[in-house]
């Protein structure tokens, strides 16, 4: 990889900025001052330094975000704040994007990455990656609903969902539930409950595959996945 491309990808500046830095002698490769940034380096073997700091090159990044309400799952928007707007600016050069989407008024676990292959694997309809949600539902959720969800719900457009796992935590005028679905149709959780005469008033995604939302991550906060979490994410089965 060219030195200037490596440094630009890692957020050290534009190509124009980097030319200026090279003239100042603050870019080194294997200890030697690098003036010609068009030269190629091996990211595994060569040591690149920027102003005395060793550059740790990474091709991919994987972020966990606890998405708040009012933010849309997109990389840019002319009206609303996006999930990318919530990230530390250090991740912007990686051009990360959300893996799938959460509705504007839905909170919880959202993965952002620049790894298109992993994103495709997680979003592929053939994979049936399980997604678990916590919801407050207006209306009394009963065992009858559990049985209907287990068979699959017919949505308002006639689509028959895959069987889903509905767990009732508390039933009453506003019931508390957890629901695991194996696909990702538009507004699916809300539409499933509407089909049985109930309304979701609060929705939060808490798990994707085997990866759970970090309970210590405040709304709007994000962090990189650990190696263990990345392994869990790439395993597309549930417990």
In terms of topology, how is this protein built?
Elements: H1 3-9, H2 15-23, E1 27-29, E2 32-33, E3 48-50, E4 53-54, E5 62-67, E6 97-98, E7 107-113, H3 116-123, E8 131-138, H4 143-151, E9 165-170, E10 174-181, H5 188-194, E11 199-208, E12 211-212, E13 222-224, H6 227-234
Parallel strand pairs: 7-11
Antiparallel strand pairs: 1-2, 1-3, 3-4, 5-7, 5-13, 6-7, 8-10, 8-11, 9-10, 11-12
Low-pLDDT parts are none
C-alpha-based Rg, rounded = 22 Å
Shape: elongated
Strand-pairing-aware structural class: alpha+beta
Helix percentage: 10-25%
Mean of all residue-level pLDDT scores: 93
Number of strands: 13
- Beta-strand residue percentage: 25-35%
Tally the helices: what do you get? 6
Outline of the structure:
20% of the residues lie in helices and 26% in strands. The chain has six helices and 13 strands. It is elongated and about 70 Å long.
Can you characterise this structure?
With 239 residues, the chain is of the alpha+beta class. It has six helices and 13 strands. The chain has helices at residues 3-9, 15-23, 116-123, 143-151, 188-194, 227-234; strands spanning 27-29, 32-33, 48-50, 53-54, 62-67, 97-98, 107-113, 131-138, 165-170, 174-181, 199-208, 211-212, 222-224. The strands form two sheets. Strands 5, 6, 7, 8, 9, 10, 11, 12 and 13 form a nine-stranded mixed β-sheet that branches.
